[in-house]
Design goal:
alpha/beta; globular; binds 1-deoxynojirimycin
Length: 714
């Protein structure tokens, strides 16, 4: 019998339920305030896990109580939401997805883990892997965007980054893949609402990233708050126990979302906390976060014979094993026992700047960018021009209170000899228009206007769904006034747009001379934006989510299936709108740079392939523009005839090429034939013989893609 099993043998029911409970320590910036009687519960062994606590000193003090004063001396596991950096804030996850750079995805998670661990913590509730195709849903900002294949790549990189090569290492933390699963398609884009999707969509779109996380060894998984076709995920035996545990072999910890077990009562599947706890336990949820359902409900459930002690023991063992894997039994103080070196912190800041720069997506540029060499007067207008708190984006919980760099500060730093004038014009939201006229007057005599518009950070994230994701408040009025005035004086206007989701900005796109999608870039926001505006860096981000022209187009995503009546403007009875084209404002993968790229000579080899082959795809890319730049080359496939209708395009790869002005290079991509399998009529993976189209190019717009064909032989 190993130590963990022996330990289990010595535990009382109350101690077991303590290991299955996680309670908030009521995080405060200056230090933790332990809620209610938590300290006493740690001491008497009836509380095994905490969340929302930071600071190595405080964490160690709690660990000390657990390992020195509790009967069995079991260390605590303390988790925290490290959504896009812990203290140093990286771009929001949606923005980071836009970098299309797996090395960066992993590195930012690694650095976030080191910073989290330096604070004494051993667990994070990240990565968030929910595919989102509904921009109304505020949590779109936390995730990988619209594409399941992209979500898989991000899942792998993030798990590797957080957990490092060894979970027990003092700089590694347990990752939690969340929210399992299909949280994104909430009805009406309203957070926490119900979900009703087909089994195919579930399997093709929402499960793969979690399967990839399990494959990468993720330590924990958090079921979503939502229900799927009437079954709340917290009680979803078929998906938690049968799929995750039995089919995928996941033996890590299932930690409920905040109060989610008790919410089974509101969902309408449990009458009281005893039934709620029973359902969650039966589904295999190991840790009850904040509902107190296990501690209060399970003793009664046990007495009534609704659950067995074996079912409880199973969960306790999984929690203890994770603590063991984290090295907590060996040394509960290993994380946070050494202060980080100044150079480590400085290097992390440089990484934040790199990630921020690479996450910026240039949506339009009719020549206003980069700024001309002799730019003397820059007019920086808008409510997001000097708003350091907003730059961090939502959910930067333990982010430094130290200001993030604003656009104004970034530009002042980058252009020390230019005159930089600034007016807010109007607030982010509200109805005050009194500053608009004066702001528009500032345009006079400027070489360029930088108009900083968008959402406040808190307009996306949890419980931040919006029914009209447009520019809030009076920002459209401000934009019109500035654009009118600038048009009169022939001053170019560059819009820098901040948001946690695509916004409906067709009119702005038409009128502005350039539009840079900044998302929320984090601590180094203003420096990154200034680097791109001034041309020190060429923009290279690509949108990981389609931007619609009109809200009524949603859900709009590139991998839709064809219709029996595909859009034909000349034929009335085809699949289209009367008032807007089907095409988006910006397709998935779109993003300009300061180069101009053309594609030629797409080749695939072999052209006739079998299951074990890997297809080598190559294409020549030429930078016809006047400046060096990086191009992201996407590889999509299309299977025109299959037993189940396949999407119009499916992402299967991407590669980057950096080219000087006038230079030609070759992008090479590898496509294992195994990747061409799809779920057949019976939902089993199949590889069907026949022709597969290989589409290669700059984004998911068919008109811009080169096509080659591969014949699959059985
Ligand atoms: C609720 C959120 O849904 C989840 O993502 C988060 O990890 C927990 N609260 C804990 O803060």
């Amino acid at each position: 019998m190993n130590t963990i099993d022996k330990l289990l043998g010595r535990m009382t029911l109350a101690e077991k339920l303590g290991q299955m409970t996680m309670t908030s320590a009521s995080y405060a910036v200056t230090g933790p305030v332990i809620a209610g009687d938590s300290t006493e519960s740690i001491r008497n062994g009836t509380l095994g896990n905490l969340l929302n606590m930071v600071g190595a000193k405080h964490v160690h003090e709690m660990q000390r109580i657990a390992v020195e004063e509790s009967r069995l001396r079991i260390p605590l596991m303390i988790g925290f939401d490290v959504i896009h950096g812990h203290r140093t804030i990286f771009p929001v996850p949606l923005a980071e997805a836009a970098t299309f750079e797996p090395r960066l995805w992993e590195l930012t998670a690694r650095e976030a883990a080191r910073e989290t661990a330096a604070d004494g913590l051993a667990m994070t509730f990240a990565p968030m892997l929910d595919v989102s195709r509904d921009l109304r849903w505020g949590r779109t900002v936390e995730g990988p965007g619209e594409d399941p294949w992209l979500a898989v790549q991000i899942a792998r990189a993030k798990v590797r980054g957080f957990q490092g090569p060894d979970l027990a290492h003092a700089e590694s933390v347990a990752a939690t893949a969340k929210h399992f699963c299909a949280y994104g398609p909430v009805m009406g884009g309203r957070d926490y609402a119900s979900v009703d999707i087909s089994e195919r969509t579930l399997r093709e779109v929402h499960l793969p990233a979690f399967a990839a996380a399990v494959d990468a060894g993720v330590a924990a998984i958090m079921p979503a708050f939502t229900e799927l076709g009437g079954v709340p995920m917290t009680a979803h035996k078929a998906l938690l126990r049968d799929y995750l545990r039995a089919e995928l072999g996941f033996d890590g910890v299932l930690v409920s979302d905040y109060n989610a077990i008790r919410e089974l009562i509101h969902h309408g599947v449990a009458g009281d906390v005893v039934e709620a706890a029973t359902l969650a336990l039966k589904a295999g949820v190991d840790i009850d976060m904040m509902a107190e359902a296990y501690r209060h409900g399970l003793p009664v459930a046990l007495e009534r014979g609704l659950v067995t002690i074996d079912e409880i023991d199973e969960c306790v063992l999984r929690v203890l094993r994770l603590k063991e894997r984290l090295g907590l039994f060996d040394d509960p103080y290993r994380r946070g026992s050494k202060a980080e070196e100044a150079e480590t912190v400085a290097a992390r800041r440089r990484l934040a700047r790199e990630a921020a720069t690479k996450s910026l997506v240039l949506a339009k540029n009719s020549g206003a960018l980069p700024f001309r060499e002799n730019t003397r007067r820059v007019c920086v207008i808008g409510p997001l021009a000097n708003a350091w708190r907003e730059m961090r984006g939502p959910w930067a919980a333990a982010g430094y209170e130290e200001p993030s760099i604003t656009v104004l500060a970034g530009l002042r730093g980058a252009l020390p000899s230019a005159e930089i004038v600034h007016a807010e014009g109007t607030a982010i939201s509200g109805t005050d228009t009194s500053g608009i006229a004066a702001a528009a007057e500032l345009v006079a005599g400027a070489d360029v206007v930088v108009l900083c518009l968008g959402e406040a950070a808190e307009m996306s994230g949890e419980a931040a769904s919006r029914s009209s994701p447009e520019l809030p408040g009076e920002q459209r009025a401000l934009a019109d006034a500035v654009l009118d005035r600038a048009a009169r004086d022939e001053v170019p206007v560059v819009v820098v747009l901040f948001s946690g989701r695509p916004l409906i900005v067709s009119r702005l796109m038409e009128r502005a001379d350039a539009l840079l999608i900044a998302w929320f870039p984090g601590t180094e926001a203003g420096n990154a934006i200034a680097d791109v505006l001034t041309g020190r860096a060429s923009p290279s981000g690509r949108t990981p989510i389609t931007w619609p022209r009109a809200l009524g187009q949603i859900p709009i995503f590139y991998s839709q299936r064809n219709s029996g009546r595909p859009e034909n403007p000349k034929d009335h009875f085809t699949s289209k709108y009367l008032d807007v084209p089907n095409s988006p404002l910006l397709p998935f993968g779109f993003g300009l740079s300061y180069g101009r790229f053309s594609y030629a000579n797409l080749t695939v080899s072999p052209e006739v392939a079998t299951a074990s082959d890997t297809i080598e795809v190559s294409v020549e890319v030429t930078n016809e523009g006047p400046r060096a730049a990086e191009e992201t080359v996407f590889l999509f496939i299309r299977d025109r005839v299959a037993s189940v209708a396949r999407p119009l395009l499916e992402l299967k790869g991407f590669a980057k090429v950096s080219l000087a002005a006038g230079q030609t290079g070759t992008a090479r991509l590898r496509l294992p034939v195994a990747e061409l399998r799809f779920l057949g009529l019976d939902f089993e993976p199949v590889l069907e013989p026949g022709e597969i189209e290989i589409h290669v190019g700059p984004c998911a717009d068919s008109a811009q893609l080169k096509v080659a064909r591969v014949l699959l032989r059985a």
